[in-house]
Design brief:
About 5% of the residues have low confidence. β6, α5 and β7 form a beta-alpha-beta unit. The chain has about 425 residues and is α/β, with parallel strands linked by helices. It has twelve helices and 20 strands. The N and C termini lie far apart (about 65 Å).
Length: about 425
């Protein structure tokens, strides 16, 4: 989003304030041009014979976004049977889908196998159960490399105490189960966390997987997850994806030579593709002066964007209604009956009630983690591409909140 002629504009010259007038607020807006840019950057960074970039759709499960990324050439990674069904509704064939759940019931695994997607197993009991049932579908195995990497502990998932994956120290047990049951292992997978900018930490985990791959002679691909960091504020560190791609490609090609044949290289980017494409537009309800702070109370809260509270995440905030105004210090807070601070002590252009604020980097894990706390409606979503805007999710209504509820009239006996 850039200031042009004293107004903020999205790609293609789209005015975000006009979108607020057209669709109401609060409003999620996704700039598809940025998704396209990020996909092409990632695609062009790797020089390998066979590359597959699978969108981690948990980041943003809007079906129109998924269809757009599919048209760019992205595959898809799903973590629930519902995400699998959304992917199929978006046009993916079952064999194009990798299902990477964590600790789900065997019924969910059975449903995924019946659909025909690729299964990524994250525990030995699941391998035992699939072997017992003589499942002949090829499997992937998620390995925990015991590498701490990521922006903070909550989004670091490859360390020794993580619930995700099978410890790399348990490879002998995995090999025993595979040999005894006759399971076919087509791929190995790791994902160490999110917001990784340290290339060396990522490469440390990949060495673990490449070494283990030599124990599995029938592999067709290795999946190295993602977690590439994008900037959230001025001067923020980010993954140099071009430098990483060059170094990683050289290492992967050498691995394939040692393995004896070319394997497909898989990544599963989520945040890298959609984070910077998203903006959450919220109006200011009140400017409230307190003894030590000035609060901007907005018409939204942690029910719509929980990352600042859940992860202590920083999201840049700008005042779209006053692009070049005098800077003043505010704390931006929500309307939920909890402490839901969206930004503390931010220097923003002077604001008044009715102004529209933009919360940046709202494309990943924002709408997809929204909720109805305080019986609030979830907002609408709009996608912008080539100068046009498209409503891709309607705003919720009271009918939506009541649709799955049933009214039971229970009359308590009067207390004597």
């Amino acid at each position: 989003m850039k200031i042009i002629n004293n107004h903020y504009q999205l790609s293609g010259g789209v005015d975000p304030l006009a979108l607020c007038e057209k669709y109401g607020t609060p409003l999620y807006v996704y700039d598809a041009h940025i998704m396209e840019r990020q996909y092409k950057r990632l695609r062009d960074a790797f020089q390998v014979p066979d590359l597959s970039l699978n969108f981690a759709c948990k980041a943003l499960t809007n079906i129109s976004v998924i269809k757009f990324l599919k048209q760019l050439g992205a595959g898809i990674d799903c973590v629930s049977i519902q995400e699998v069904q959304i992917a199929i509704a978006a046009g993916y064939q079952p064999k194009e889908i990798l299902f990477t759940p964590s600790g789900v019931s065997i019924k969910e695994i059975e449903a995924a196998i019946e659909i025909g997607v690729h299964i990524n197993a994250d525990n030995i009991p699941l391998l035992e159960e699939l072997g017992k049932r003589n499942i002949d579908a090829p499997l992937c195995i998620r390995i925990n490399p015991h590498v701490m990497a990521g922006g903070n502990e909550k989004i670091s998932v490859g360390h020794i105490e993580s619930k995700f994956g099978i410890s790399h120290t348990q490879i002998p047990q995995i090999l025993e189960v595979v040999k005894r049951t006759g399971l076919t292992i087509e791929g190995l997978h790791i994902h160490t966390g999110s917001d990784i900018y340290n290339i060396e930490a990522f490469l440390e985990a990949t060495e673990v997987l490449m070494n283990l791959a030599m124990e599995f002679p029938d592999l067709t691909y290795l999946n190295f997850g993602s977690g590439f960091k994008v900037p959230y504020q001025a001067g923020d560190k980010e993954t140099d994806i071009e430098a990483f791609g060059a170094k990683f490609s050289e290492r992967f090609n050498r691995f394939c030579e040692a393995y004896g044949r070319t394997l497909s290289l898989h990544f599963e980017p989520g945040k890298f593709l959609v984070s910077e494409a998203g903006y959450f537009l919220v109006p200011v309800n009140v400017v409230k002066t307190a003894p030590t702070k000035v609060f901007l109370g907005v018409d939204s809260g942690q029910n719509h964007i929980i990352r600042p509270m859940f992860y202590d995440a920083y999201h840049k905030i700008t005042n779209l209604s006053n692009p070049n105004g005098t800077k003043e210090q505010y704390s931006v807070v929500g309307y939920i009956c909890e402490t839901d601070t969206l930004g503390t002590d931010r220097m923003l252009s002077s604001a008044k009630a009715g102004d529209i604020l933009a919360i940046h980097n709202a494309g990943a894990y924002c709408y997809s983690m929204s909720n109805n706390y305080n019986s609030r409606f979830r907002p609408a979503e709009v996608m912008v591409y080539e100068g046009k805007d498209y409503l891709v999710r309607q705003r919720e209504t009271m009918e939506d909140l009541l649709r799955t509820q049933t009214q039971v009239d229970v009359f308590a006996k009067a207390i004597a």
